[in-house]
């Protein structure tokens, strides 16, 4: 982004000179223009990541969690319009459009009308756009940024809308919704016709002159416990390389999808490993934010999953182990606990306090317009 800033400052000088302004006026013009350099946004969603899940990183991880680096922290209330206990579709639609909607809705209002998303709006302003997920890229959380359908299970329609959409860089799973479709259409061809470099094998170096699509699993990628490796952090870095090469501001959503799945499976090892992987990715993103002051990182969750608590651990004879704790699941469903919001970078102070999940969209827009 530094190069981008220089280009703006340089054109400001040229304009000032060509208009024959005094040096004091020139200086003011430069300051004013520099201040308006667009803010890049990185939005990270830990699906199902409530405060207990974040806490697990502090008791089961080996290093100090990257969560500790945040100073601007808030809480969000996640309910949908139809159910107090929401799902990822309504949750992500609240983040992407600024409006709460019903459960299972993707980018549509309570009366199923398509609503513009932050990704679409910023694309119109000249931003680059990116989505990274561990699930199928047509799954609820990423889909809510580019698709508008009445039900989250309409994967084939969602895939079609991705091809016709405004996403410059995406990485995740979901090959089957592009290639083995009921309508027989081969969306691999459609992606390439839309100027995508498509890689279905690995996170290769992005083609900076084109858009980039990485479809790396039939459905979802493996979980961390199944040997996924560092995909999430690597995909984030690959996206940053691409956006940086093109010297334009960007909006990128990165989802740690399987914290939620650990909760549904009541699998504490899976949940903890996914939280630690997400935290590791946060570390990579925080390094980028620190090196690029004109960025804002917001990390939050769509809802908590599992009604998790971290409580006492006992040995076989029923005696408490004082220096050990364990994860308890109260349910295999989502819960309605408030979830944490962590912010770092320009505008981070906007995210302090307690607010509704859809306010996060409005806070991001406020940061973009004011910072
Ligand atoms: Zn879930």
TrEMBL record:
PROSITE patterns from the UniProt entry: ALKALINE_PHOSPHATASE, PROKAR_LIPOPROTEIN
Active site: 88 (phosphoserine intermediate)
Annotated binding of Mg(2+), by residue: 47, 139, 141, 255
UniProt remark on cofactor binding: Binds 1 Mg(2+) ion.
Membrane-spanning segments: none
GO MF terms, alphabetically ordered: alkaline phosphatase activity; metal ion binding
Binding site for Zn(2+): 47, 260, 264, 302-303
Record flagged with keyword Magnesium: yes
Source taxon at top rank: Bacteria
Cofactor: Mg(2+); Zn(2+)
Family: Belongs to the alkaline phosphatase family.
Protein's recorded name: Alkaline phosphatase
